[in-house]
Structures are given as structure tokens and as C-alpha cells.
Amino acid sequence: MTETLLAIETVSVAYGKVQAVRGVSLDVKAGEIVTVIGANGAGKSTLLNATIGALGAQGAIRFLGEDITRLDVEDRVARGLLLVPERRELFSTMTVEDNLVLGGFRVPRGVARDTMAEVYDRFPRLKERRDQLAGTMSGGERQMLAIGRALMSRPKLLMLDEPSLGLAPRIVADIFRIIADLRAGGVSILLVEQNARAALAAADHAHVMELGEVSVSGPAAELARDERIVQSYLGFH
Amino acid sequence: MPADVPWIKTNPAAALARSEPSEGGNHGRPRAVDGTILLFLLQDGITNGAIYALLGIALVLVFAVTRVIFIPQGEFIAFGALTYALLEAGRLPGTVWLLIVFGAVAFTFDFVAMLKDGGGVRRLAKAALLDLALPAAIAGTAMLVAGRGFGPLAHAALTLALVTPLGPLLYRVAFMPIASASVLTLLITAVGVHLVLVGLGLAFFGAEGVRAPAISDLMIEAGPLLVSGQNLAVYALTAASIVALWLFFERSLWGKALRATAVNRLGARLVGIRTSFAGALAFGLAALVGGLSGILVAPMTTIYYDTGFLIGLKGFVAAIIGGLASHPITAAAALAVGVVESIASFFASDLKEVIVFSLILPVLMWRSLTQTHVEEED
Predict the structure, then answer these.
(1) How far is B272 from chain A (nearest CA, A)?
(2) Does the pLDDT at position B376 exceed 70?
(3) Which residue stretches of chain B are H helix?
(4) Which domains, and CATH codes, for chain A?
(5) Contact call for B267 and A103, based on CB within 8 A
(6) Considering its fold, how many domains does chain B have in total?
């Protein structure tokens, strides 16, 4: 039995009176890619934002066995739980390199230097553009920078919110290749996607979210084969 | 508040401006302006402008990081000036007790927050160290140093050590608990903090004004101009501070973290930069810059507990001209404010403040006409 990294236990999130997420439970084990798929507005992003601590949540969130439900975002980051948000949230008027440097804010300087070399190896494009301002880059490059910045913290679990959103198909393929590479490098991933076919192809486990609740869960390969599920929940991607 | 804050009348031109009306027959209008007087005015204006530049930059910094329009920045100057002048006079400044009181209040806040959210012994120890032990250590040093004639350099360093921690402590008590409030709420709080600080200034420093001896009695003749050692110190230290701040923001990790928080607060949190850390750091820098400005001002004019407000407002005019965003425009605008003020004090000394504060109007109009309105983030 592999180690459970993240355990989300009957988590509910409300915006005022509107329940955006209701009693969702899911696990991510070490070395796994778990995906949460579903239509727009199903509560997927809300779930990730609650998991990182940017939104308040009811229920329990455990990371490496520790209850982190009441910790601040910054403390969760310090424990190795990282989110690449849907809107990237880069430091747009700062250089690519400064964005990466800040990604390593919580790690010792020496480690940060080595990690930056690794990130540049993984994303040569970022190295080429290291002195360019983050806000002047293309959508695909910004996504790579957002992932690179999160990697600078040496995450144990990386949560990706719609990494393929708004990107050209060729770049989407790049992003999913990067996700597979990351897992091979020992980073576990919780992936939220609307691009269900690509997400199911990359993931080990999958959960379908619908109106704030998980309606179907199972091995990703099984869900991908089930045409009924794919059609009724995910539409034709 | 004194009717006319005796702010900087240091050179012959300004003295001339004051004596002008009494010279009869011309109803206060200057008879002739020659190039020498203009040069004096320019020099005077640039000296004051340099200090406004430091203030303006501190205001821009605090606003960018915390969204607080920090009206009480002037109080840091007054406290810095009073502290330095009193130390130079061989007395123990009230800042010592002020710092201890601030620390005790901040510790109470931290203690209550800890009871509410938990966090254990480590958090309590950290709060005790920063809120109680550090201020006590600085205050203790001040008590040992005060009155022993250690000289201006030691007194300046001690002044900075006493004033700088007031920034983070003030942030902890007044602004951190409402960090996510609207800009308007933060502004109202800033005005409230200003009133409280002026009151505390009266309580801890008394109503009496003080003035420090000049840093040096050096006088350099440069053509028709007399440049004092004090003027040179203002130019050199202002320039050095601006370069140091620039290096801090461009090169150091903490400086970059402050910029990152200013650019994207959520993004900063997602890489582990605590908003409260950035806020405390910004306020600490603002207090440091304020304390330094105070030390520079102290030998140039008599400082009262409430002198800081008007000086601070001039820096504020510069910061507004810089859109509360641009450091270089703010610095340039501050120099312009200083020069305009100096010239206005010569030609229309009664209307000096009116003219200086009117500078803000065309800028605001131009901004509201040319720039799209920025919605406040929610």
C-alpha cells in the first residue's frame, strides 16, 4: 500500500448560501495522477481552492497524515502542497527569472538554485526568455512558467487547475507530456480538467464532479472506456 | 496644532521672503528678483524636495504592498526628528516608552489571535521575542546610551533602531486585522491612526519643540550659494537611500517578495509569501525611511509632536502625482513640490501651502480624464 499524500474528507464549500461543493471525498497517493473532471461550474476549481486554503471549507483535509484544514495557504505551501491556479496568478510585471526565484521563496537558497537549473532543463523556453516580463509571454509559455514557479517549491503534490484552458491543441499535448514527465520525476498530481479525454488518458484515478458532488469515481482507464459516462457527463471532446 | 508650522526657513532667501512685507510701501510684493535669490530658492526647494522624495517613495511602497494610503508617515518623521534631537540634547526620548507600549499592545493582539486559532508555544515564543524582547532590548540600549554624549552617529543609529520597529508593530495592531478591507476602510483607519499617533506624540514627547544641532558646521561657497554640511548630508543620504531601496527591490529576495505581493497578492501567497510578512516589512521600511527623514530634518527646523503631518502631506502630493505607483515619477514630483513650495514661500508666503496642494488638482483631473477607471479588486 503506497502512502496517501492528500486525503480530502467530506469537504463542503459554500459561497454565502450557495453550496458549490458538497461532501466531496477523494485521496491522492504518492506517485499518482488523480483527475477531477466535469462540466464548467461543477465545483472543481472551488475544490482545489479550498484544498490550498484560499477558500474556507467544512470537513477535513489531510496532507501527509496531518490535518491542514485550518492552516493558511502559506503553511500548506511550506509543507509541499502547491496549486497552479486557473488564472496562473503570475507576477506579470516581473521577469520570468524573478517569478521562478520567488517560486523558491520558502526553500533554502542553494536548493532553489539547483531547482531553477532543473526547471530550465525541463522548460528550455523559459531559459530563453528569462529576462522577459512574465506578462508579455504567450498563453502556453505562461502556463509553463506557472508550473515552473510551483516546481521551485519542490512540491510533493502539485494541483493543476485547467492547465490546458485556452491553449492551442499542440500546446495542450505539450502540457500533458509535461504532466506525465513530472509524475515520472516523482511529483504526484491532482489535475482538474474540462478536457476529459486527455485528462483520463494521463490519470490513474478519476472522479467526475457534477453540481458540486462526485457522481462517479474509478480507475481512469475504466472511465475512459465507458462511452456512456463519457457522453453523458463529459460531452464529446 | 500651531497655526504656521515652522517648516524650514533655513537660508537668507527665505528669511528675505518673511521680512519682505514689513519693508513697507509695496504691500508685500517683492521688488526685484535677481538670479541669486532664485538660486537660493532652488537650493532650498531641492533640499526640502529630497526629503519629500523619501516620504513619497515610502508612501508608494506601503500602498503598493498593503493598499494602505499611509497618512501617518509624517508621524514617523516627527518621532524620528524628536528622538534624534532629544538624544543630541542629552535626554532620553519618549520613543523608548512608546516602543514598549506598542510592543505590549501588539503582543496582546498576537496572544488573542493565538487563543483563537491555536499555533502553540512556538508562535507565542516568536510573538514574545518580536513584540516584547526586541523592543525592550532596544529601549534598554537607549537608556544606556542616552545622556552620555556618544555623538551624532550613535544617536542617529539609535533613533533608527527606536523608530523602525514602530512600523511593523503599528501594522500588526492597526492594519493586519483588516488587511483585506477596502481601500476606503484602510484610508479611514490610516486617518484614525494619524490622530492617535499625534495624541501619543503629545503624551510621550510633550508640547515643547526641539531642534537638533547641525550635523556639521561646514559651509561651502559655490558661486553665490552657500551650501551647508546639512544640505550636503540631505542630498547624499537621500540619494544613497534611493539607491539602496532600488537595490533592495531589484536584487534581494525580500525586496522581490514585496514587489510580488504588490503585483499579485494571491500569486504571492501561492508561493508562500505571507501577506502579513510583506505588510510588516513594508511598514518597517516606511518607518526606517521616516526616521531617517526625521534625523535629516531635525537640525533644519524646530520640530513639534505634530510637525510631521504637513511634511508628510507634501510627500503625499508627490506620491499622488506618481499615481501611488511610480517611484521615479514620485521622486521627481517631490523635487518639483519642494521647488514650488520654496518659490511660493518667497512670492506669496501666505498662500504657500495652498499653492503646493493645488499642484495635485491638474494631475488628478488629467488622470481621471485619460485613464480608465481601475475597479477595486474584491
Answers:
(1) 4
(2) no
(3) 12-19, 35-66, 73-88, 95-117, 120-128, 134-145, 152-163, 166-170, 183-205, 229-251, 253-263, 265-270, 275-297, 308-321, 327-347, 352-358, 360-370
(4) 1-80+190-237 (3.40.50.300)
(5) no
(6) 1
